[in-house]
Design a protein that fits this description.
Elements (H helix, E strand, L loop, with lengths): L1 E10 L2 E11 L4 E5 L6 H8 L7 E6 L2 E2 L5 H6 L2 E4 L11 H8 L16 H7 L1 H5 L10 H13 L5 E5 L7 H16 L3 E5 L3 H5 L4 E6 L2 E6 L1 H6 L1 H8 L2
Parallel strand pairs: 3-8, 3-9, 6-7, 7-8
Antiparallel strand pairs: 1-2, 1-4, 4-5, 9-10
Helix pairs in contact: 3-6
The structure holds adenosine-5'-triphosphate.
């Protein structure tokens, strides 16, 4: 579904990605791991068209999306829950959700059940309760749920979450994890960047570890659990 090969990227003269490879199959949950500043967000920005790659291949659903405008990439069925949530503070919950709503991509596979206001509110009942509240009146956890719900309203085929549980209390974090597991069970492909590796290990199909803009390890959860050194050296956990 998503194939990234030999991705290189730079901010002005400073190169930060040096040939990143990453593959996500249909309905898979893949994690992108690594300590701060290793290039995870930059990889996501290249995939989403927010930063033009220096070189490399990015194919989604069989088509090249490398260097395309972000709105066109979003239309192919890629949804992003960005770092820091970035919900609209001066819109209500309901308005935040409507602002990004988009019907499924006409040329692509049509999901059997598109995401609607009702369906995202059934997934996160708290958003129904808060639907008339302003974005900035929500707690951190509620804002995060809104950010996920808003991305779902674009009816993506692959959802990318960049640090979606950062700063959240453990109980809320668990709620987010079970929502992601439910989305995966419904067939959505997910690329998840997060520091809570052990929670992710239970549901991820594959992990990719970045170190200074290079993939230093890839494998499944069993391989990762067998390599305690790995998480120690590259993730510092
Ligand atoms: N806008 C920018 N301009 C210049 N350098 C940047 C910019 N954004 C990130 N960098 C640098 O690029 C490198 C990779 O950063 P990136 O944000 O991709 O890392 P990350 O793995 O997502 O870490 P974090 O968890 O801290 O976001 C870092 O050295 C960072 O300082």
């Amino acid at each position: 579904m998503l194939e990234v090969h030999g991705l290189e990227a730079a901010y002005n003269e400073s190169q930060v990605l040096f040939g990143v490879d990453l593959t996500i199959g249909s309905g898979e949950l893949v994690t992108l791991l690594g300590r701060n500043g290793m290039g995870k967000t930059t990889t996501v920005r290249c995939i989403m068209g927010l930063l033009k790659p220096k070189s490399g291949v990015i194919n989604f659903a069989g088509r090249s999306i490398a260097g395309k405008a972000s709105y066109r990439i979003a239309r192919t069925g890629l949804g992003l829950v960005p770092e820091g949530r970035q919900i609209f503070p001066n819109l209500t919950v309901r308005e935040n959700l409507i602002a990004t709503a988009r019907l499924p991509h006409s040329a692509g596979e049509q999901p059997e059940r598109p995401w609607t206001l009702d369906r995202v509110m059934a997934l996160f009942p708290i958003l129904r309760e808060r639907s008339a509240h302003w974005g900035n009146q929500l707690s951190g956890g509620e804002q995060q749920m809104l950010a996920i719900a808003r991305a779902l309203m674009t009816n993506p085929r692959l959802l990318i979450l960049d640090e979606a549980t950062e700063g959240l209390a453990p109980l809320i974090r668990d709620e987010i994890w079970s929502t992601l597991a439910e989305l995966k069970a419904q067939g959505l492909a997910l690329l998840v960047i997060d520091k809570h590796v052990s929670a992710l290990a239970d549901m991820a199909d594959h992990h990719v570890i970045l170190e200074r803009g290079r993939v230093v390890w890839q494998g499944n959860s069993d391989d990762m659990r067998r390599n305690a050194d790995l998480t120690q050296s590259y993730l510092g956990v």
